[in-house]
Amino acid sequence: MTTAIVILNWNGEKYLQQFLPILTKYTPDTDVEIIVADNASTDSSLQVMKDYFPAIRTIVLDRNYGFAGGYNKALEQVEADYFVLLNSDVEVTDNWLSPLLNFMNENENVAACQPKIRSYFNRTSFEHAGASGGFIDQYGFPFCRGRVFGVVEEDKGQYEDNIDVFWATGACLMVRSKVFWKVGALDNEFFAHMEEIDLCWRLKSRGYRVMCVPGSIVYHIGGGTLHVDSPHKIYLNFRNNLLLLYKNLPTDLLRRTMFWRRFFDYSAAFQFILTGKFQNAKSIFRARSDYKKMLPDFFEKRNENILYSTNLNIAEIYLDSIVFSYFLKNKRTYNSLKNK
């Protein structure tokens, strides 16, 4: 079985110089190829690849297609049994690939998996974007085993078991290439943020498993492209989360869920206004407006997802509100959420 590790780079020359040597050191040579796909960087990324990493294949894209479109464009030019989508700001560790690869080889019904993601700067803690596996509540709000909203747990070995998850992080995502294309790849219209959750939802609804394999550990900087409090990041997250729900929710749940999401979204905008973050509040209003404008383009995608869905009762959806559990019930860890 062949594996392609593909790093989508956009103006990440410092990360390429910092992390590519570590990746090549800890990645086996046999049946594994490392590829850098450049998303029309305007810094010296391509020169860095030419000068320091001439042996690594570089795919040059003609413009910035975003995370989703950039990966789709790049992966069209890659042949392998497994794709590993790896952020440029990820530091891998010794023997990081083998647990993922062995697990996938031994479990043919698993379509995708992720390692344990720790923080690069606080190395005993989980990292916000992925931690030890991703989940979602019934209203579409994502959280992780090891991170709920702003509470990031220290890794004390509490989440060491291989576990079925709702979504695996795009920071380090291994996926079967045939299944990736079969379910429609990443959604280009998302551009960035939530696209891996959308992909995993399609995988789950069609009967595939998505797993976290904590025997593999990587360290992620996070926020390398957009800061967590960036108005544009808030816009993309809110807009794409609504698109995610519209695309994938069963018909009998859609109207009720969207009613509550309107309440949650406007509450979040009001909170930003109260704290003087007016641009962030404006981002939420714009996200909801653009979501409505984009709905006609997603009508066929929704119909296709509903048509091919065989698993409507996904066990990894938290059948409660993570917002209410966190803010009203003080349940701020994954383990506390399981104890209702």
Compact description:
The protein is α/β, with parallel strands linked by helices. It has eleven helices and 14 strands.
CATH fold name of the largest domain: Spore Coat Polysaccharide Biosynthesis Protein SpsA, Chain A
- Runs in which pLDDT lies below 50 for 5 or more consecutive residues are none
E-strand count: 14
Number of domains: 2
> What number is the mean pLDDT?
95
Q: What proportion of the residues is helical, as a percent range?
A: 40-55%
What percent of residues are in strands? 15-25%
Task: State the CATH architecture of the largest domain.
Answer: Alpha-Beta Complex
Looking at the structure, what is the overall shape? globular
Distance between the termini: 43 Å
The CATH class label of the largest domain is Alpha Beta
Instruction: Assign the structural class, choosing from mainly alpha, mainly beta, alpha/beta, alpha+beta, or little secondary structure.
Output: alpha/beta
- Give the radius of gyration: 19 Å
The major beta sheet can be summarized as:
9 strands, mixed
CATH superfamily of the largest domain: Spore Coat Polysaccharide Biosynthesis Protein SpsA, Chain A
Number of helices, where a helix is a run of at least 4 consecutive DSSP H or I residues: 11
* SSE sequence, one letter per element: EHEHEHEEHEEEEEEEHHEHHHEHH
Topology overview:
Layout: E1 3-9, H1 13-25, E2 32-38, H2 45-52, E3 57-60, H3 66-75, E4 82-86, E5 90-92, H4 97-106, E6 110-119, E7 134-137, E8 142-144, E9 147-148, E10 151-152, E11 163-164, E12 172-176, H5 177-182, H6 195-205, E13 209-220, H7 231-248, H8 251-274, H9 278-308, E14 317-318, H10 322-327, H11 334-338
Parallel strand pairs: 1-2, 1-4, 2-3, 6-13, 7-14
Antiparallel strand pairs: 4-12, 5-13, 6-12, 7-8, 9-10, 11-13
Helix pairs in contact: 1-2, 6-7, 7-8, 7-9, 8-9
